[in-house]
Specification:
Shape of chain B: elongated
Protein name (chain B): ABC transporter permease
Main location (chain B): membrane
Family (chain B): Belongs to the binding-protein-dependent transport system permease family.
Number of helices of chain B: 12
Oligomer: heterodimer
Subcellular location (chain B): Cell membrane
Number of helices of chain A: 15
CATH topology of chain B: MetI-like fold
CATH architecture of the largest domain in chain A: Orthogonal Bundle
CATH superfamily of chain B: MetI-like
Helix content of chain B: over 70%
Structural class of chain A: mainly alpha
Largest sheet of chain A: 2 strands, parallel
Number of strands of chain B: 0
Number of domains of chain B: 1
Membrane topology (chain B): Multi-pass membrane protein
Chain lengths: 347, 256
């Protein structure tokens, strides 16, 4: 059943006007740090107003599904964007942004804990599907890890080959780039039959969980896509050390292995971490599509919602994916800043 | 070089011509399947519909991407650039399939959700390529153009855009390949395209249809990539150029 949408007339008018005024004030008048605070406050006020309106509209009916109308979503998006811009204006860096994000998440958590948002359809749906959500979360993380960890090893090796032997490296990187051209849906779908055949031929593998439909095609497909960003980052990382530093190390009598471990890798670490960040964010998104070929994760909820035409369920699958990707991005970006010799320049 | 880039196009055309004749082959490969060849629509009409989705979304995406990219690199437009960066950052966290799924309650099943996601995601590489390319036009050249008495509009049209054209074209190529992939995902929301046999096959337990749809989708991506490589300037045509410049939006964030 499609949800009833909360329009401007149905929440207290002030509840919508106050966040808007706060945000406008923040964008123009306030110093950047206060603007961040104002945007975050406006976001919380807007969510609270939506929860309040939902509580009054839901009234007697337990089955009513209530969600923000398009304007509400646009306002939430605009406030998030305004907060993001203000952090940029305040030159807060990756760590400052992480603090803001944690603050907003904590406020959201507090509102949920106090039951202020309980009557919104999304929250009701989440409460009703607690165990499913936990399974989806664990499944999503497992699939990401299963693709990312082997891709790190193989991709780094490919990148090292590309750096050490540029001629062979060109064809290796060309192959990895060609893989990127294949649409994910086609690659996942094409992997099903060979894996099914392999499972039929080798019963041992089938007992280990290898079937055509399931996690295997998604994990292998995502693994293949992640090779390029990791290999490219590894190649760039190994070349990131200034020639003078490498020369100096050689002059000091460093063996080639020492040059690699004590000069090239430490100096290239932020670049390599950048590749890991790109790969991790990509993995979170790609795994979602894996639900189509029978892998788990949040994609399961999303496709289930699509099948039942249940917008809340679709959002329940999609929002955690976006949050997970943004969080991974922020954490790894913070680490990168910490590793860079000049954090300000790297931001 | 250019002819070699057109090879995937020929391959795709050949596959399209041969596939309708391969019912016996698929019947032998998948003996359990009652209907070994997807016949609800012809592969040609699926391809045309898929190509239509890509074309219809690529034009607005190119216009928005290049326009926003130009606006973001004008002096005094720091805010525009930050808004663009922020939007790109959020968009990259949400996979296209999520955008398509979220759009369904708002715009209904069919081609509309796919088109929405297509425009969003095809804009990103164009925007990124345009801002990057315009930012690398040497300041000396701009000074010389201004010194010669050119108006800002003349500088943009006669100096900046011609110098920035190759990377922008490369961005368009990335956008087109991405659009082929996103259009295929549109099949989950009922868009008619080469992804339709994949979805129909998965839903009905017909692996033959899945293979047919997947092979054509993959070949179409390579064909579009090759077609745009053949159009691009010579030094942009190699397969490595997409490798480093990224063929999907996330890897364009590589710090290289």
């Amino acid at each position: 059943m499609p949800p009833r949408l909360i329009g401007p007339g149905e929440a207290e008018a002030l509840a919508f006007l106050i966040p808007a005024a706060l945000a406008a004030l923040a964008a123009t008048a306030l110093p950047a740090r206060l603007a961040v605070l104002a945007c975050a406050g406006a976001l919380c006020a807007l969510l609270g107003a939506l929860g309040d309106a939902a509580a009054r509209l839901a009234g007697s009916s337990e089955a009513a599904r209530l969600g923000p109308a398009a304007g509400g979503w646009i306002a939430i998006g605009a406030l998030l964007l305004a907060a993001r811009l203000a952090t940029g204006r305040a030159a807060m860096g990756a760590r400052g942004r992480a603090v803001v994000a944690i603050g907003i998440a904590a406020a959201l958590g507090a509102m949920l804990a106090l039951g202020l948002l309980d009557n919104l359809g999304l929250v009701r749906e989440a409460a009703a599907r607690g165990p499913e959500l936990r399974v989806a979360f664990a499944g999503h993380l497992q699939l990401v890890a299963a693709a990312l960890l082997p891709a790190l090893a193989v991709g780094a090796a490919c990148g090292a080959i590309a750096f050490a032997a540029p001629r062979a490296g060109t064809s290796v990187m060309g192959l990895l780039a060609a893989l990127q051209v294949i649409p994910a849906m086609a690659l996942f779908a094409l992997l099903i039959e060979p894996l099914a055949a392999l499972g039929r031929a080798v019963p041992l593998l089938r007992e280990a969980g290898l079937r055509g439909i399931g996690a295997a095609p998604a994990v292998i497909g995502v693994f293949l896509y992640l090779l390029l960003p990791i290999a490219a980052a590894m190649r760039a990382a190994l070349g990131a050390a200034p020639g003078a530093a490498v020369d100096a190390a050689r002059g000091l009598g460093f063996a080639p292995a020492q040059v690699l471990w004590r000069v090239r890798l430490p100096l290239g670490a932020p670049v390599l971490l950048g590749g890991l960040r790109v790969a991790a964010v990509q993995a979170v998104g790609l795994v979602t599509l894996g639900a189509l070929v029978g892998a788990g994760g949040f994609g399961v909820l999303m496709f289930q919602g699509l099948g039942q035409f249940a917008p809340d369920l679709i959002l329940l699958g999609a929002l955690p994916v976006a949050a997970l990707a943004l969080m991974l991005d922020a954490v790894l970006r913070g680490l990168e800043d910490g590793l860079s010799p000049t954090p300000e320049a790297a931001r | 070089m250019r002819l070699a880039a057109l090879l995937p196009v020929l391959l795709f055309a050949a596959a399209l011509a041969v596939l309708p004749l391969t019912a016996p082959v698929f019947a032998a490969l998948f003996p359990d399947v009652a209907e070994p060849l997807y016949r609800r629509e012809s592969f040609l009409s699926l391809t045309l519909s898929h190509g239509g989705l890509v074309l219809v979304s690529l034009l607005p995406a190119a216009a928005i991407g290049i326009g926003l990219g130009i606006a973001a690199t004008r002096p005094g437009a720091r805010e525009v650039r930050e808004v663009a960066d922020g939007l790109v950052g959020f968009a990259q966290a949400v996979p296209p399939v999520a955008v398509i799924a979220i759009a369904v309650p708002a715009v209904g099943f069919g081609a509309a959700p796919a088109l929405l996601a297509l425009v969003c995601y095809a804009t990103l590489p164009v925007l990124r390529a345009t801002t990057a390319a315009l930012a690398t036009v040497p300041p000396d050249v701009l000074d010389a153009a201004r010194g010669a008495g050119m108006t800002p509009r003349q500088v943009l049209v006669q100096v900046e855009l011609p110098l920035a054209a190759p990377p922008i074209l490369a961005g368009l190529r990335v956008a087109a390949v991405l659009a082929v992939a996103t259009a295929a995902v549109g099949a989950v929301a009922g868009a008619t395209c080469l992804g339709t046999p994949i979805i129909a096959g998965l839903v009905n337990g017909n692996p033959a249809w899945v293979v047919q749809g997947a092979v054509l989708t993959g070949l179409m991506a390579f064909a579009v990539d090759g077609l745009l490589a053949a159009l691009a300037p010579r030094d942009q045509a190699g397969p490595v150029s997409i490798g480093s410049a990224a063929s999907r939006p996330h890897s364009s964030r590589l710090p290289s």
